[in-house]
Design goal:
The protein folds into two domains: 131 residues, Rossmann fold; 159 residues, Aspartate/ornithine carbamoyltransferase (Rossmann fold, 3-Layer(aba) Sandwich), CATH 3.40.50.1370. Helix content is 42%, strand content 16%. Helix 7 links the parallel strand 6 and strand 7.
Length: 303
């Protein structure tokens, strides 16, 4: 069993992963020896804090071993991806890939002979969405019927929230002035809309008044934020998205939870003060990336 995208998982699989993550968080000692003698390979093209730490620390807490591989320091960029994944499958028991292109994640999963997890690509971020569901369940005590408004670029994170919502009965409203064309998944949006669980809207204020959760993500890809060659595009996006910034005035008087998948650009997509607002569950959300990943390791590892 792989985790390439949540579209491929059943509702039972998704809910089981969320419930297991909460259990692992509550009773870590119970799972301290669950992965003894087993290894997790972490193959990353993209930079990472949460996905890498969740994999390395999480696997250690389960009694196993994690091997981190930067794409640039391996032969993955020189050889056939499928061949190298087949070799890696002979060395480790599970694999997490964090790759630039969804097509490469699919190729890797097809070649892998051990369970493989998508740690982020340009179309989906399923591990993030599962940790998000866990965090919402902890905070609100439910998933079905929750109304979440996503604000920002329609991207991989938004896609996985929509897919997650479709599995658990959570409604997602997307307020997205711009679409990342490489991420667009019209089949997913149509399925979720037909189920009454997805809406596109330009009315941010109206959506927030009906929401239990507001969720945002960076307007600008992290690797380009400080790149001088990207300055013109950065300025264009800031002008476009500034009216959609999460700030105290926008959220005044609203009883909802604030989420951000991090890393955040304080003062851009979100006023930095909101990260520490009593309604913020952002840092619980970040912590839960590890508990969620541990639950996935156990589930896909057959434990």
């Amino acid at each position: 069993m792989h985790l390439v995208r949540l579209k491929d998982w059943s509702s039972d699989d998704v809910l089981d992963a969320v419930e297991r993550a909460i259990e692992v968080k509550r009773n870590p000692k119970q799972y301290a020896q669950a992965m003894v003698g087993r290894s997790l390979g972490l193959l990353f093209q993209k930079t990472s804090t949460r996905t890498r730490c969740a994999g390395e620390v999480g696997m250690a807490q389960l009694g196993g071993h994690a091997l981190y591989m930067d794409w640039r320091s391996t032969n993955f960029g020189l050889a056939d991806l499928g061949d190298e994944i087949r070799v890696l499958s002979r060395y480790v028991d599970l694999i997490v890939v964090r790759l630039l292109h969804h097509e490469d994640v699919v190729r890797a999963a097809t070649a892998a002979t051990v369970p493989l997890m998508n740690g982020c690509c340009n179309r989906y971020h399923p591990m993030q969405a599962l940790a998000d569901l866990m965090t919402i369940q902890e905070s609100l005590g439910r998933l079905q019927g929750v109304r979440l408004t996503y604000v920002g670029v329609l991207n991989n994170v938004c896609n996985s929230l929509v897919a997650a919502g479709l599995k658990v009965g959570m409604h997602v409203t997307a307020v997205t002035p711009e679409v990342n064309a490489a991420a667009e998944d019209n089949e997913l949006y149509s399925q979720a809309a037909a189920a009454g669980l997805f809406t596109r809207s330009d009315d941010l204020h109206g959506a927030l008044k009906r929401s239990d959760v507001v969720y945002t993500d960076t307007w600008i890809d992290m690797e380009y934020f400080s790149d001088p060659a990207y300055e013109e595009e950065k300025d264009r996006r800031i002008r476009l998205f500034q009216p959609f910034q999460l700030n105290a005035a926008l959220l005044a008087g609203l009883d909802l939870r604030i989420m951000h998948c991090l890393p955040a650009h304080r003062g851009y997509e979100i006023d930095g003060a909101l990260l520490d607002d009593p309604r913020s569950i952002v840092f619980d959300q970040a912590e839960n990336r590890m508990h969620g990943q541990k639950a996935l390791i156990l589930k896909l590892g057959g434990c």
